[in-house]
Amino acid sequence: MEDILKIEHLYKHFGDISVLEDIHFSVKKGETVVLIGPSGCGKSTLLRCINGLEDIQDGRITLEGCAINPVDKKDLKIRQQIGMVFQNYDLFPHKTVLENVMLAPVKVQKRNRSEVEQEAGELLERVGLTSKKDCYPRQLSGGQKQRAAIVRTLILQPKVLLFDEVTAALDPEMVREVLDVMLDLSAQKRTMLIVTHEMAFARAVADRVLFLDEGSIVEDSTPGEFFANPVTERARRFLKTFEFEKQR
Amino acid sequence: MMDASIIRSYLPIFAQAFTLTVIIGWIGIVLSILIGMLSAFVLYFKLPVLATVVRCYVELFRNTPLLVQLFFLYYGLPSAGVRMSAQVCGVVGLGLLGGSYMTETLRSGLETVPLSQKESAYSLGFSKAQLFVDIILPQAVSVSVPAVTANIIFLLKETSVFSAISLMDLMFTAKDLIGLYYNTTESLILLVLFYICMILPVSFVGNWIEKRSRRNIYGD
Amino acid sequence: MGFEVLLKGKNMIRLLMGLGVALKLSILSVVISILAGLVTGMLASFKKSVFYIVFRVHLEIVRIMPQLVLLFIVYFGFSKAAGWNLTAEAAAILVFSFWGTAEMADLVRSALVSIPASQYESSRSLGFNSLQTYLYVILPQVGRRLVPLSINLITRMIKTTSLVMMIGIVEVLKTGQQIIEANRYQSPNAAFGVFAVIFLLYFAACYPVSRLSKYLEKKWEN
After folding, report:
1. Which end of chain C is less crowded, N or C, counting CB atoms within 10 A of the terminal residue's CB?
2. CA C52/CA C68 separation, integer angstroms
């Protein structure tokens, strides 16, 4: 499989504080890559750079050979090729679920309304939200909102999907329904880049795991390898924080 | 004490003054909303130069009383060659005062739309203009409605100072009749009643809208 | 343009003294409003009490009636109906304090009820008694919300006191008119300069206060 997304020697800093240093990796078509690492290690910033929400100080991000960051700000088409789902769902509160899903394809892509509506219906069905399609976001649970947000991104048929800690704001019993949707997408061979703190999920969904610490990639391996035998001391210490032992 | 026949004979005079006050008041309010929308737009997009002008305007008019503004417009400007009738002065004065309040209200309405909403719209490929029209504006408008109604009530109350520039409004009529015939009680009762007629309906509508919009935000 | 009139003799001083009259009335009314508002606001925070009902009626009256109408009622109406012979100054302070108290009480009450119940509960679970909860937990939080808003009340009061010229108190606008009148033949166009200066004087009085209020509000925003 060919590389679809390439990040080359990326540097990002906020003022004097360096956030990402020489990030260099690529993602193959159909691959699910999970980014893990301690809070503040730069995972979310990396996703935001790939989505063009943050400008970068050095390096290059390309999608199928086209530069996406740095990019000409006016080129909005390229943005739609990369879909991003956020931690706080950020559905538009003044629109119903169906309207949320249809707004971008109709307004931005200028696609045919009834065609979009049919596709939206199918996608909502797939994530189990058919009965909620005329509800407003305030009437939904967190898990339902997040599934709707995923559909809102999917309908634009992006080439790469980015997930930024999409279950972090959810109640525990709702985490599962969202992760199931993502597992389903991974099984469909969508290209995905996921930031998560759910280690069991990371292990199940990932084709590849990238471990970030202090702004750089420390390990790049398969989930089996990474979770069983982390190479670096830093990764070992990080994984240790998810284990509990009874104090004696 | 109170004399019903006096009230009856004063009623038409007050009704006429009421009509004048309401008309000038509401034209001024519409003007203030227009000024407010334009200025809020300028501030929100930080348009160079214009934003500074708007900021100075807002501070000047928010920090001075309408009475002083009207005196300047009606008595001061003619000596600089700008002459307006009392009616026009009332509309312009109320529009400028109200515009400065509306600007603040609408601007903060626009700013309540969180950054994350803009980001998710950007990541869906919205342009700046589409983002503003489809995402920010509708949310900002529904957030601002209660504060805009509060401003409208405030402006309707402010119309009471129109009498200072010899506009024949409710206050002017009351003062005139008290001065002429000493029927203080009757004049004051009519004055209060007509102000209640002018403001209470807006206050009711405002409360109703506020309850509704609160329900929209916090669930049904 | 008429500015020269103000440089003649004691004209500028007279104008400033006129502003002083308005400011003195504002300060007196604000002090009364804040003190009375604190008490009424605290009492009104007990929902379903008789205090709350009285407070609601009071607030509705000042919300609906223009201050100028209230001023007329007290100044012209009371003297006639009740036989009180109020001076214009007393009527002004009475009306502005009546208005200010309601506004202040509303600020106090909403600041008090906006403190979430969990603050009371967690204080109780830490073993504070009611008085201690008020002193150490609630009031410091309420104060931070309240101070900027009460400072803002001062600018509103200053602007409102300009109304007193309508019941014949000689304040800055009236003084301005007198100056223009007295110099009618020498400088027929004095009105522009005089009223422009009064406009700026009011701005100079209110702007710093409203800046202070905004500054404190920002600073104490969580």
Report:
1. C
2. 26
The answer to whether position A116 is within a domain reads yes
Please count the structural domains in chain A: 1
Q: What is the torsion angle, in degrees rounded to the nearest 10, for the CA atoms of residue A68, residue A70, residue A74 and residue A75?
A: -10
Confidence of residue C118 (pLDDT cuts 50, 70, 90): confident
Q: Is A145 contained in some domain?
A: yes
Q: Which of residues 45-104 of B touch C (CB under 8 A)?
A: 59-60, 62-65, 67-69, 71-72, 75-80
Closest CA to C167 of C53, C100, C39, C77: C77
B76/C203 touch (CB, cutoff 8 Å), yes or no: no
Angle at B125 between CA A118 and CA A4, to 5 degrees: 90
* Partner residue opposite B64 with nearest CB, options C81, C165, C203: C203
Q: State the CATH architecture for C3-221.
A: Orthogonal Bundle (1.10)
For residue C218 the two structure tokens come to 């920002």
- The pLDDT value recorded for residue B219 is 43
Q: Per residue in A205-244, pLDDT tens? A: 999 999 999 889 999 999 989 998 888 988 888 888 888 7
CA-CA distance, C166 to B32, in Å (whole number)?
25
Shortest CA distance to A150 belongs to which of A198, A85, A78, A211? A85
The pTM score is: 0.83
- Taking only residues 80 to 99 of chain A, the set having a beta carbon closer than 8 angstroms to any beta carbon of chain B reads 80, 82-84, 86, 88, 90, 92-94
Within a 10 A sphere around the Cβ of C159, how many other Cβ atoms?
21
The string of pLDDT tens digits covering residues A20-55 is 999 999 999 999 999 999 888 889 999 989 988 888
- The ipTM is 0.89
Token code pair at residue A95: 């629109």
CB contact under 8 A, C67 and B200: no
Provide the domain limits for residue A125.
92-157
Domain ranges of chain C: 3-221
**Residue appearing with tokens 């506004």:** C103
* Structural domain of B194: 4-218
Q: Pull the structure tokens for residue C199.
A: 């406009």
Whole-angstrom Cα distance, residue A220 to residue C81? 90
| SS3 readout for B175-198 | HHHHHHHCCHHHHHHHHHHHHHHH
